[in-house]
Design the sequence.
């Protein structure tokens, strides 16, 4: 019935989206949802080009970055994805995900995401560790990152954002920019306080 998988998927997604009354949040996960799954690249992928052309503009498209579990997200990559999809992507961030290997538990801060990304995103979803309590630092530091991004969005300057994006996380905070190390220290302080409070509860 359809000349390609992408056209079939876009047609079905569009029909469901319209049948539901075009809800404000409607997400589509493409078959090629990261750069490593694209052939030969996101910008040259016939599949993604069709999705970008055929999918109704109100539908959000999920993207995980260069890989399924991406250590870094750059502004340059997001610009490429935005161009081919004709919309800002919704990042499904698997930085902390460990459902594929439960021996791996990431307790570090939210990092590897260039400053100024918020202006290039339609949304961000964090895929957490399977162990509930192991997500205190990931979620806490994500909140700190988000607050720093909101501060940066208050005075959008794309040229300035490009310059800031080139700085490595190890350089620390500069005028309110996000510092993974400082975010980690804040999260650890609050986590210790939370643990101490739980220890005082009756029956703990």
Sequence:
């Amino acid at each position: 019935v359809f000349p390609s998988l992408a056209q079939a998927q876009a047609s079905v997604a569009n029909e469901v989206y319209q049948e539901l009354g075009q809800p404000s949040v409607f997400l589509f996960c493409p078959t090629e949802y990261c750069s490593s799954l694209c052939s030969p690249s996101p910008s040259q992928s016939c599949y993604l080009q069709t999705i970008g052309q055929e999918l109704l503009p109100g539908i959000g498209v999920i993207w995980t970055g260069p890989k399924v579990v991406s250590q870094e997200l750059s502004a340059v990559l997001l610009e490429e994805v935005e161009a081919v999809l004709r919309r800002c992507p919704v990042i499904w961030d698997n930085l902390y995900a460990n459902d594929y290997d439960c021996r791996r538990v990431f307790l570090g801060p939210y990092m590897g995401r260039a400053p100024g990304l918020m202006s290039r995103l339609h949304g961000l979803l964090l895929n957490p560790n399977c162990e509930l309590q192991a997500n205190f630092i990931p979620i806490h530091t994500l909140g700190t990152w988000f607050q720093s991004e909101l501060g940066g969005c208050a005075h959008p300057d794309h040229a300035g954002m490009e310059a800031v994006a080139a700085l490595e996380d190890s350089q620390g905070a500069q005028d309110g920019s996000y510092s993974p190390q400082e975010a980690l220290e804040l999260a650890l302080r609050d986590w210790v306080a939370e643990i101490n409070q739980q220890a005082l509860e009756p029956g703990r």
About this structure: Helices lie at 5-19, 46-54, 75-85, 136-153, 158-165, 180-200. The chain has six helices and four strands. Confidence is low (pLDDT under 50) at residues 155-174. Residues 5-153+178-200 form a domain with the TIM Barrel fold (CATH 3.20.20.80).
